[in-house]
Amino acid sequence: MSKKVAVLQSNYIPWKGYFDIINSVDEFIFYDEVQFTKNDWRNRNKIKTQNGVQWITIPVRQESLDQKICDVKVSLPNWAEKHWRTLITNYSKAPGFALFRQPFEEFYKGIKTDLLSEINQQAIRFINNVLNINTRISSSKDYSLIEGKNERLVDLICQAGGTEYISGPAARSYIDENMFREAGIKLSWMDYSGYSEYNQMFPPFEHGVSVVDLLFNEGGNASRFMKSFSNMEQPGITN
Questions:
Q1: Three-class SS of residue 47?
Q2: Could you give phi then psi for residue 73, rounded to 5 degrees?
Q3: pTM, rounded to two decimals
Q4: d(Cα 19, Cα 228) in Å, to the nearest integer?
Q5: For the CA atoms of the chain, what is the radius of gyration?
Q6: Cα dist from 121 to 69, 114, 124, 173, 183, whole Å
Q7: Helices 116-130 and 97-109 sit at what angle, rounded to 10 degrees?
Q8: Which residue from 20, 123, 182, 189 has the fewest beta carbons nearer than 10 Å?
């Protein structure tokens, strides 16, 4: 029986493409037992404002250069309240904001952990529910991890029973395709081109922002602007 698997590090309120990958597989594995990278997507993302694109960042305390994502902690306790106020300021007049205001407010007010990985994973699971994504979600800590970048990835997919691995295009620079082929795993690449523009506030249009921008602007129509919902047979993937 075929099984599609994707493995990604957790990001903070990721863009729509991240959720298209999740919705395109049978199991999505959070991979946070790797090094935290500063000034990356792990603890920040972008939103649209009347002054242009703005970063919204969770303040964190990095104790060492080799610290793992799963061990990174938040450095300020009131960050969630500030982020929610920022979203209200910039999206309260968006057409779909009223639909999602209560669940998002409850989410931000309900965050209790100070671990970045847990915050990210909770946010992603929450947004999955908003989008009605029912993919099985797991974590690399649920599996045994071996040494070697490609070896570990291939072994992780095999442990999950995966027959096909769907990867983001950025991984082309390091993935050893022969290793997947030898393990009998089909390797497919997510295609992020050709997304349709939606009714986004504060032009010019920008695709590379958090999925909250799509949700607040389009409300219940948000999934129409995501590839994995518009064509479930071929969800924006190239082999």
A1: strand
A2: -115, 155
A3: 0.94
A4: 9
A5: 18
A6: 12, 12, 5, 26, 29
A7: 150
A8: 182
